[in-house]
Amino acid sequence: MKQPNWKPLLLACTIASLGAQAQELKPELNSAILRTKQGSIVELPDFLTEKIPDITYRKVVMPGPQYLIADDPEYIRIPEGIALQEPVQPGAVRLYVYNVNGVKEPAKIDRRITAVIKNTGTGNMHIRMLKYSSQKPSTNYYQIGKQGLADYFASTPQRTIRTVKPGQAIAIDEQLEKNIVKYDELVHGFYEFVIDQPGEISVIQTDLKTSGPKALQRITNIIPPKGQNAGRGVFGVSNYRVITDSVYDTKNGTMEIILADGDKDPWVEGKMKGRPDVAALAGNYGVMYDIEMKWKSSDGKGLALVTWNSRSGNNQWCGGMANTMIVSKGKFNEGIIQLPSDRLITKAAPEAILIQVFEPAANGEEQTIKMTYSPPGASCLPTPLIFIPVDLK
User: What are the helix (H) ranges across the chain?
Assistant: First the structure.
């Protein structure tokens, strides 16, 4: 009889042991969490692991706007071309522009990357902006992604209503028309608006002398997708409601919710103009998650919420993580918080980012934590939301 190979079993036991050890929060780490400002880095040596038990949840598709994203190709390598062109129907529309001037042959040249909407209906189109986020082109992709979400969350509906005649096209964001996009700079625009006529949205790269609407009249080539980035097209989900399956109790130890991993949280699907296959949005960028987690403390402990860059060593794109969320009141006020807030990114363990600390109810009653999350552009995914019981005394 062949002797069994115990090495895989020993390795599995070692990993399990390390995972179990990671659930025990040492007193010095408990103190470090309580000393940390909201959004700041706190180091948790020998604690962070991908083996933390999951808090299971359900995702409910909620009513939301038609959702379009332009991120394939991310780097537009030709001087002029259309990176996205999709029809939209009357109603609410969310558009995420995420494209880079990638022209380097025969030389690196300045470009304009802009988004336009054409009225394809028979009556006047009226367009009003509900959410607006427009960043200055930059090679600091992490900062653009983090600030872009913060501006989107903070924006409020505009009163101005623009009119577009049948057959006419206008720039969705006049700021994009003014920007000079240098080689390797990212254009990041995140918008939500309402229209009352059918239309067609195009994301265009052109020269600095030509406006987006003028470029649309002469540019006919739609750049083929490469299938190497998040994706492009119109997608069937724009808003999720995330509800945990059970009431989390601090006595059960550290647990986590994993979002935007493509497995527990699959990618949303849609379609791309002129293509019969199903388009996938790898990363679920621009999709809004309204999260509700019920919890209680039967042992009198509080609850710290942190996140970290769990895939830092997995590939070349995971060297850093930066995010922005809305979180309900705890030790710190409710509101928008950039993660991290004290530096550009978090890199790897033992670094974690403190999002919030929640106090237990005096009588041990259930409470609800609410968060608004969207996968951050340019950042490493997935996003682990780790709930750590802490002694507040």
Answer: 7-22, 27-35, 141-154, 174-178, 212-218
Distances from the Cα of 127 to the Cα of 277, 320, 347, 356, angstroms: 31, 37, 41, 38
Percent of the chain at pLDDT above 70? 93
Give which of 6, 3, 52 is closest to 25, Cα–Cα: 52
Strand 351-358: give its sheet, edge to edge: 41-43, 351-358, 302-307, 383-390, 255-259
Residues 96 and 206 in one domain: yes
Does residue 276 lie in a domain region?
yes
Of 206, 234, 262, which marks where a domain is finished?
A: 234
In a domain, 12, yes or no: no
Domain that holds residue 313: 27-62+238-390
Quick check: 138 and 144 in contact, CB under 8 A?
Answer: yes
Helices H / strands E in the chain, number of each: 5, 25
User: Is residue 324 a part of any domain in this protein?
Assistant: yes
| Number of Cβ atoms within 10 Å of the Cβ of 198 | 16
- Do 187 and 161 share a structural domain? yes
What whole-number distance in Å separates Cα of residue 151 and Cα of residue 355? 18
Query: What is the pLDDT at residue 177?
Result: 98
Looking at every residue in the chain, the average pLDDT score rounds to 92
Which pLDDT value is given to residue 246?
A: 96
Into how many domains does the chain fold? 2
Q: What is the pLDDT of residues 134-167, one digit of tens each?
A: 999 999 999 999 999 999 999 999 999 999 999 9
Angle at 154 between CA 260 and CA 93, to 5 degrees: 65
